[in-house]
Amino acid sequence: MHTGPAANGPTGDNDRFFGSVNMAHNFTVAIDRSRYELGTWASASGLSVSWQIAEYRSGDHWNHSLVYPGVPQYQKIRLSRAACRDSQIVQEWLTETSIRNEPLTGAVSLVNWEGRPTITWELKEFFPAAWGIEAFDSAGGGVALETLDLVHTGFLNDDLLPGNAGPPVRVY
After folding, report:
1. pTM for the full model?
2. pLDDT of residue 73
3. Residues in Cβ contact with 10 at an 8 Å cutoff, skipping those fewer than 6 apart
4. Where are the alpha helices (DSSP H) in 11-161?
5. What are phi and psi of 166, to 5 degrees?
6. Are 68 and 56 in contact, with CB atoms under 8 Å apart?
7. Is the dihedral of CA 14, 107, 79, 92 positive or negative?
8. What pLDDT digit, counting tens, does each position of 14-67 carry?
């Protein structure tokens, strides 16, 4: 049996290599300054950013315009999973959030099969926008899916002055 680097992947460490690329990823949500752990989520969508184009044409350049990136726009993040014991914790967090309207900071992390973060998106000023559970149908035999929508003001460190690198992005 060959035990060299070719047999153990590019790093020579089979567990490390396969643990980072397997398909059993989940998502966790961490809320700063909160006592609530919202559990693990099966899917997350909306982790994206886009920029409207800001175009400027000065008077001395006849047909030439300058193009700049505009203000970044972030989509709502939609988390979903099978309804579970952690759904009650989400309900308690939603109750507290609706009473005390304070934007939170936190993070969404992609975690591997061991529960270790692979990559983390630090969210600025987020709050719940919607929550729901699909219709219950005992005859269908399906799982009741819980969804949680989060609105946020960004995950990029782009609110810094040009030339300031800011904190590093956490990649595990």
Report:
1. 0.72
2. 92
3. 17
4. 14-21, 86-99
5. 75, -175
6. yes
7. positive
8. 444 444 455 567 899 888 878 888 989 999 999 999 998 888 877 776 778 888
Residue 131: band (very low, low, confident or very high) from pLDDT cuts 50, 70, 90: very high
Distance, in Å, from the CA atom of 19 to the CA atom of 156, rounded to the nearest integer, reads 27
Q: Specify the DSSP element, H or E, that contains 56.
A: strand 49-56
Give the pLDDT confidence score for residue 143 in this predicted structure: 85
The position carrying tokens 């989400």 is 90
Supply the DSSP string of 133-168, one letter for each residue. Answer: EPPP-TTTTPPPEEEEEEE-S-SS--SS-TT---SP
Q: For the chain, state the CA radius of gyration.
A: 21
Calpha distance 16→9 (Å, rounded): 9
